[in-house]
Write a structure and sequence with these properties.
The strands form two sheets. Strands 1-2-3-5-4 form a five-stranded mixed β-sheet. It is globular. Helix 7 crosses helix 9 and helix 10 packs antiparallel against helix 11. It is an alpha+beta fold. It has two domains: 182 residues, Fructose-1,6-Bisphosphatase, Chain A, domain 1; 245 residues, no CATH class. It starts with 15 loop residues before the first helix and ends in a 15-residue tail after the last helix. The protein contains 16 helices and seven strands. Helix content is 49%, strand content 9%.
């Protein structure tokens, strides 16, 4: 049977019924079922260790490979990748299901080269899913690109980011029925690490969980939303585009600015609050750039509109979702949310009075920008500081706003730390929950726990009443 490629004009979205047709294709459903049945046979490293499982695994791999071949005409832009994915699958099967190696197909997958709004991809790799499964299982996902015109213009101008690929879900295997909202090449099982050329973020999941959490949090805290912020609750598409703009600027910030050589200290163990500051720095850069774009009367009208919404999204996602999501073991995003909330409260633009949360929005841009400036100053000075001195300065910045645990060794100052030892020994003194939740957040977390949990597996097609697709 001939398969017609779904086409659409640049800058427009395909027909919604056409979007769903790929996910309902029997060949995709066969692929999805085969991958799901294969996963229990795989070990942590992706191999199929039991020889007694190899016959079934080979049968399932062939079903996956044949389904990819049948579906490939729908994705002519990914022809080389899909051909090599089939080759990698069959080679893995023929070689006895050891640790999988999908380097060849991974290198061929280059979604950043054609960021057309609505362009669809079929992606199949043995991989772990961040905030999902840590096992490298064969996962399959159908996605489409989210690339509105105003974002394309921003990226072509002052906010170039050739690696950034915003996407939305069409369908997925169990590894993505989780909190994972990214598709990163480094998660794939491969024999060697190539230079990575793209990173994809699921804007629809980010937007959908933001809307659900904000809707509940506003009710719990008696917060009256500004009219334009309320639009984000009512319009999934608007929220997705807002998150794409936020992520575009956030993502490029990680390698820009006065950095302490490598802000992530790759392959080095360091206190988790430094990761808090790095992620918050990138978010507050997006916030400050959005303030600038909103105030630029020469800027594109859609960019200015979304720039205002990015400011709401950064504040609300950080103080409502980030702060109370996940456990309390070195939760660096949680600490970043706590820090932003406390900073706004202590600078008197956020008020919790008479069991009602209010925010002085006219004053928020300057106050939130000041926190970003303080982190930038810390980074600028770090270039002239030894590593441990930078860590101590970072702790001083955070603990000056968020109260440490009473049992903290770090809170007692440098004299209490083993500064003549190794950096690891100093890091080991940081408590898993160095900065516990405040009384406000303890109460909020109890009221919001079920809402946060309900966002696992959420997509842009989920309603407020659905836990997942």
């Amino acid at each position: 049977m001939a398969v017609t490629t779904i086409a659409h004009a640049p800058g427009t979205s395909p027909d919604p019924q056409a979007l769903g047709s790929v996910a309902q294709d029997p060949r995709w459903l066969t692929l999805k079922e085969a991958a799901t049945r294969l996963q229990p046979l795989q070990a942590h490293d992706g191999s199929v260790p039991e020889a007694s499982d190899h016959a079934l695994a080979a049968q399932l791999i062939e079903q996956i490979a044949s389904a990819i071949e049948a579906l490939a005409p729908r994705f002519p832009h990914d022809a080389d990748y899909l051909r090599l994915a089939v080759w990698d699958l069959r080679r893995w099967s023929e070689q006895g299901f050891g640790v999988p190696d999908f380097l060849d197909s991974l290198v061929a997958f280059q979604p950043q080269l054609d960021r057309a709004d609505g362009l669809q991809h079929l992606v199949v790799f043995p991989m772990y899913t961040q905030n999902g499964s840590r096992d490298r299982l064969v996962e399959a996902v159908l996605v489409e690109v989210v690339w509105p015109d105003f974002v394309a213009e921003l990226e072509a101008g002052a906010y170039s980011n050739g690696l950034f690929v915003p996407i939305r879900f069409l369908d997925f295997t169990p590894g993505y029925a989780t909190n994972s909202a990214v598709l990163f090449p480094e998660t794939v099982a491969m024999r060697e690490v190539p230079k990575f050329t793209w990173g994809a973020i699921f804007a629809d999941r980010e937007a959908a969980r933001f809307r659900r959490v904000l809707d509940a949090a506003a009710t719990v805290t008696n917060l009256e939303l500004p009219a334009d912020a309320a639009e984000l609750l009512a319009d999934q598409k608007l929220a997705e585009e807002t998150f794409v703009m936020w992520d575009l600027i956030h993502d490029r910030t990680h390698m820009r600015g006065d950095l302490p050589f490598d802000p992530f200290m790759i392959k080095q163990r360091m206190p988790f609050f430094l990761y808090s500051l790095e992620e918050l720095r990138c978010d507050l850069t997006a916030f400050r750039e959005s303030v600038r774009i909103e105030r630029d009367e020469t800027a594109d009208a859609e960019a200015r509109r979304h720039a205002k919404l990015v400011q709401y999204a950064v504040v609300f996602d950080r103080i409502f979702r980030f702060a109370i999501t996940g456990n309390r073991v070195r939760n660096y995003d949680g600490l970043g949310g706590q820090l932003l909330f406390a900073w706004m409260h202590q600078h008197r633009v956020l008020h919790w009075t008479d069991t009602k949360l209010t925010i002085d929005w006219a004053e928020v841009p300057s106050v939130v920008s000041a926190l970003g400036d303080a982190i930038d100053e810390l980074y600028w000075r770090s270039i002239d500081r030894p590593k441990v001195a930078h860590w101590l300065a970072a702790y001083e910045l955070v603990s000056g706003t968020v109260t440490p645990h009473p049992a903290s060794v770090w809170a007692k100052g440098p004299d209490a730390l083993p500064l003549t030892g190794t950096p690891r020994g100093i890091t080991d003194q940081v408590l898993d929950d160095e900065f516990p939740l405040s009384m406000f957040y303890e109460a909020l977390e109890k009221k919001m726990r079920h809402v946060i949990e309900s966002t696992a597996g959420i997509t842009g097609r989920s309603t407020f009443g659905e836990a997942a697709q």
